[in-house]
Request: fold
Amino acid sequence: QAFFCLLLCVPWGSSCPPSCQCTEWAGAKAVLCSSRHLEEIPKDIPQDAVFLKLDANSITRIPSNAFRHLYHLEELDLSKNAIEKIDRAAFKGVAAGLRTLDLSSNRIHSIPKEALLELNAKLWLANNPWHCECALQELLWEARLDPDSIQDVTCHTAPREEYVGKPLLQVLDAGVNFCSMHQRTMDVAVLITMFGWFAMVIVYVICYVRHNREDTCKHVDYLKSLPSTQGHAE
Reply:
């Protein structure tokens, strides 16, 4: 065990990012960047990295193609950061090969569905200020969430106050369907929009008719005010 710990602490080479430590772990390259006060993902991570730990930093965003060059990446730890935004193509190029992805203990409200397309990794999403909505519900159905942490996926905000503070799984087990609520909201919005347009058309027609009536009355009054033909003949 002591030899293994010593091996883990041996630097791999000069290609390692200055703020990280590159070692060999279980016969594969591990890049350790934990607790290094990083505010963004290092751009010079070795291409043969299999394990990448970026936990306990101050990263706020995962941009598009952030890991695209890491063809061998299998485990990615982004927990305990300050991540608020995840771009749609954040995991493009590595989604199929990842086995684990830890996004727990961040500031994530929602994740674009496109960001997790083709993702087969086991996900950790606990301890984030989630907004419970249809997109998160679909994510829960489709993604491979870690069963031990799924109870900690809690509604920080929700369409109804009664769901706030409750585990998402508990809310869904109670029969709530955020996707049907979303559809009803969309239907109501469409109806309101249609009613608004219809009301505008009615108002326009009324104004048009009233304006034409006033013009007609003015024209008739004008004709009445003209001297008659009989008066000219006399």
Notes: The chain has five helices and eleven strands. The CA atoms of residues 40 and 52 lie 14 Å apart. The longest helix spans residues 178-225.
